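User: Can you recover a sequence for this backbone? Please restate the input before giving your answer.

Assistant: Of course. Working from this structure:
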């Protein structure tokens, strides 16, 4: 059976709980940034889902309702503001499966990975891992062991190629980066060092947000979304990557 190639755009965006550079919380401001990304798969970190709270913390509902044609998955990391807080994925493709992995280590802030199996055409799917690692050096060393292990990235029953994307909180080429680059291809060879900076949003000096992937996926392009809207909406800039999944035409 002939299969056509599939092209799609994936984006990663740490919204900082929708708190902008001026300290105000505004889901509407984040929504306007997301609209510009035109992503087929959107991975968000630091989202609050507290429907019983004020409008400032009812972020997951407001964002999902702004894009009614997209399918949504939410991975809770911890309770917050009478609701939950964590990672969120939105996509125009069907979501076949979803799992949330707790990668919290010691007494540091709770961290998690949202795993989604996404059906990109009738017979093929990809596995997207929306990641938010910790800020501590030792913390990340322990988290990367779990991330690469049999419970998450090395699950024996995974079907389809993997994309590992999100906020890795590693601003130098440390153990996390080295181990992931041993197992996956990455966006770093495409982006030069200066253009890869995503944090802080207004004047980025650190490269914290990355995308790792494997064959048969082919990365066509990648860039940091540095617009006036994005620079004030959060303390991170969105990362965009355009992919092609080849067919056999």
């Amino acid at each position: 059976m002939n299969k056509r190639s599939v092209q799609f755009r994936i984006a990663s965006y740490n919204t900082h709980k929708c708190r902008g550079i001026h300290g105000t919380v505004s889901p509407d401001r984040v929504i306007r940034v997301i609209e510009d990304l035109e992503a087929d798969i959107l991975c968000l970190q630091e989202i609050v889902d507290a429907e019983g709270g004020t409008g400032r913390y009812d972020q997951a509902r407001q964002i999902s309702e702004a894009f009614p044609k997209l399918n949504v998955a939410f991975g809770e990391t911890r309770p917050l503001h009478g609701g939950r807080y964590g990672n969120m994925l939105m996509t125009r493709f069907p979501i076949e499966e979803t799992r949330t992995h707790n990668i919290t280590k010691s007494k540091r802030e709770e961290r998690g990975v949202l795993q989604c199996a996404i059906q990109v055409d009738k017979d093929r799917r990809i596995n997207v891992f929306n990641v938010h690692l910790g800020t501590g050096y030792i913390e990340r060393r322990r988290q990367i062991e779990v991330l690469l292990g049999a419970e998450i990235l090395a699950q024996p029953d995974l079907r389809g190629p993997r994309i590992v994307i999100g906020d890795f909180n590693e601003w130098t080429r440390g153990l996390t980066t080295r181990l992931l680059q041993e197992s996956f291809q990455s966006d770093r060879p495409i982006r030069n060092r200066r253009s890869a900076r995503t944090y802080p949003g207004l004047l980025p000096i650190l490269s914290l947000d990355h995308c790792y992937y494997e064959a048969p996926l082919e990365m066509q392009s990648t860039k940091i979304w540095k617009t006036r809207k994005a620079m004030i909406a959060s303390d991170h800039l969105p990362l965009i990557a355009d992919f092609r999944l080849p067919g056999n035409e």
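That completes the design. DSSP finds five helices and twelve strands in the chain.
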